[in-house]
Amino acid sequence: MGWKAAQKLIQNWKIVRGDNVMIIRGKDKGETGVIKRVIRSQNRVIVEGKNLVKKHIKQGQGHEGGIFSVEAPLHASNVQVLDPATQKPVKIGIRYLEDGTKVRVSRGEGASGSIIPRPEILKIRTTPRPTVAGPKIPPWILCWRRHTMLNWQGMPAL
Q1: DSSP of 33-81
Q2: What is the pLDDT of residue 4?
Q3: Rounded CA gap, 75 and 11, in Å?
Q4: Residue 93: closest CA among 75, 115, 78
Q5: Which of 71, 117, 49, 116 is nearest to 89 (CA)?
Q6: Backbone φ, ψ for residue 37 (5° rounding)
Q7: Which among 128, 129, 93 has a CA at the least distance from the CA of 112?
Q8: 130 secondary structure, DSSP code
Q9: Backbone angles phi, psi at 59, to 5 degrees
Q10: Segment 47-88, tens digit of pLDDT
Q11: How far apart are CA 108 and CA 106, in angstroms?
Q12: Any idea where the KOW domain is (predicted)?
């Protein structure tokens, strides 16, 4: 990615994984779907079952080759979130409730102003947290050990 493209990255994303969206431009214009993945480094989203392209895959060891249909990413500006009350594409605004919680609300033409809930799928992690086997060593012990040049048994390090 060039430096010009990096300058135009969306800073405050209002579209998240699991949102119901309508495609407003492209070959699937007017169709609705669910956001499967958000690619923030490219300002793109993948909508489940939409924007299908044919991909030619060469046969390799352990998998078959052939022509497959895969979902291609769409630019984030080509999709709009659906208002839960009117089922029309709307822009998203941010409001704070009386108790101080931040919520997304629908705004723009044809919007009801209702709250757009966060999808339940966001509570499930796509990649599990890494787990490291072995004892957890505090960082100050590692620094002390390097400083004194001793190993765990108290013997000088070789």
Answers
A1: EEEEEEETTTTEEEETT-SEEEEEE--BTTB--EEEEEEPPEEGGGEEE
A2: 63
A3: 15
A4: 115
A5: 116
A6: -155, 145
A7: 93
A8: P
A9: -70, 135
A10: 999 999 999 999 988 888 999 999 999 999 999 999 999 999
A11: 7
A12: 14-41
Domains observed in the chain: 19-122 (2.30.30.30)
**Residues 110 and 90 sit within 8 Å (Cβ to Cβ):** yes
Is residue 59 within 8 A of residue 65, CB to CB? The reply is: yes
Please report the sign of the dihedral spanned by the C-alpha atoms of residue 47, residue 48, residue 53, residue 57.
positive
Nearest CA to 21 among 31, 6, 7, 9?
Answer: 31
pTM of the model: 0.72
Count CB neighbours of 7 within 10 A. 7
Residue in 70, 73, 114 with CA at minimum distance from that of residue 90: 114
The DSSP H or E segment spanning 89 is: strand 89-96
Q: Is the pLDDT of residue 18 over 90?
A: yes
Closest CA to 72 of 93, 42, 101, 99: 42
CA torsion sign for 99, 101, 105, 107 is: positive
Tokens representing 139?
């960082």
